[in-house]
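Notebook entry, structure prediction.
Reason for the run: the old model in the group folder had no record of what sequence produced it. Starting over properly, with the input documented here first.
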Amino acid sequence: MYHHHSLKARLLKMQKCYFNTSYLLFCAFCSLLQVSYSSEMKVYVPVMDKICLIQKVGIREEILDSIELFLFNASFKSCIAYSYSDLNPHYYSIFAYNEKTSSCSKLRGMLEENIIVNCSEQMHDLQFYKVTHCLPAEGFMYSFEEEIEENVNKINAVKLKATAEICIVERHPFSENFLLKRTGMYFLQSLELCLAHCRVLSMRGKCHAVLFSGEEKVCLLLRQNQPLQSRDVMRKSESEFFTLNYCYYNMTESSESRYYNGSGKIINLRVESMRVQCTVYEIPLRRVHMKRRWLLWNSKTLLHCIKFCAQQFRVNLCNAVYFEAEEKTCLHLVLNAGQALYEYSESKKETAHFIEKCVEVEEQQEYQEGSAINRIQPDETSISSPSRPISSTTHNVREQELDFFHYVAAENVKERYVKLYEFFEICEVQLLNIGIIRNAFAIEIPRKIYSLNRCLHICRRHTSCIAVLFSQLHHQCKKIFEGRSSNSISVHAHEMVVALKECYKDRPDERKCNTEPLIYYFEETQEICAVEIYKQKNLTSWEVMAINKDVSNFQACLFKCIINSECNAINYFPTKECHLIKPADESHIFIVKDYSIFAEELYCESATLVDVIRQK
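New structure, fully documented this time:
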């Protein structure tokens, strides 16, 4: 009686998918026949750490005819996370998912009267879902009716290369993870790396267990305050829950004590605006070195690892690193400087690199020589040198005022530049290392703000706003205004003070037709980066600095630019050719070829994929 025609769809990125009416008519008919309500499914979504209630639905024919679906690759649970928002005025969201092609599309602004529930028949593997609500996973009291898993090897020994340890870990029923306190989330490729991150935080009592999703590559760090009850049986689950029972170091040491007689290596580095020379020794790794592990992160090279440590050297948060070449991890250590050069081990298998001292050799103010390492710092990631020298013909659009922060010592002030794309401006800002802001008052933005750049945009809209207080930890933005002499603002340890000084127009005529910036997440550097896609083909002040062949996609091309300190834009071609672009003077004319994409990097800031999703 009913038949389905073929689906007219091109499952290519950003192309239209249309649906014929026979499926919709059938779906509408089936909804009239069924009187029982469609049961909701409980799904744990790792990237949000929430339990979501979803149900299969259909969409009315006349509505589907008027919308377009843009499919992108995603897992089913990532699709839920992308679609759902706590700020959705309808308190629900709709998405389409094709399990065979792992493709997802969010349906924006879908009214409830256009949704047909109780419809299980779908066409050509495409299914519509309604996300009715998502609840925080912590404290969730209901178990999941999953199939029981037989013959589970609960206790295993796992080698953690990143921390040079072997750990005894125990797997527990998935439902018991909800009883533990959440302390952090990482996006990691393996359970071993997830456990290693937990071990680093365990020194501060912040991690005793992990919940790892192999499909989503999500590592959730958990703190255990009481023994687990183990009331549930082991059930099959995509996310697995482990506790770390015991760890021991995978290294051999002798009892002999002697002074390390190796010579130190002089390494020239740029730390913020200074050039420094650091004396670095390669020394045998010892158990005692691991007592103060401060930070673990992914690093492409040993030099990159040492550079990051050198930035923390002055504030005593790092004076040595353990770089694991196979997994490319960098472990920050804080050693006893007086004893670090005494060797207790005959084994040369594992070594650490100890920074004995760093000496400033000169200080230069340069426009285009910002180190790529600076971009992975949480305090300055969206702030750098200007993309091009400020021309004398550009217009200063912010009045030059008397220095409000005149009382701040020069050594506590750093000059930087930011791109405020909504205003087509480059702005000079000052990073202020102060504990109290005098003669001022603050107004907190009532919603969460996920980037310093966005916080500065909010300040720029008010001519009387002189600075911002931004907390990446709490996603909090405060506007600072001049106040009475009796007013003062205390600056917390997690907050940074950024004063907005002068702003200059940056090629507004070339950029006025550009769309909203696109946000990308890069797992390699744990950053989110904003890029502006240009529509105009004839551009000024750009030139090609490098050409890369066979670059798989636009995002891979963008990453090559981000890790290059000179690059500020890319030109990507369908032939997989990637041009890295650097700023030039106004006489340079750059022609964007047809069918290619020109994109300028606006800012990069340390963040997680969760932050990207929450900004949508």
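Summary: Residues 282 and 353 are 4 Å apart (CA to CA).
The old model has been moved to the deprecated folder.
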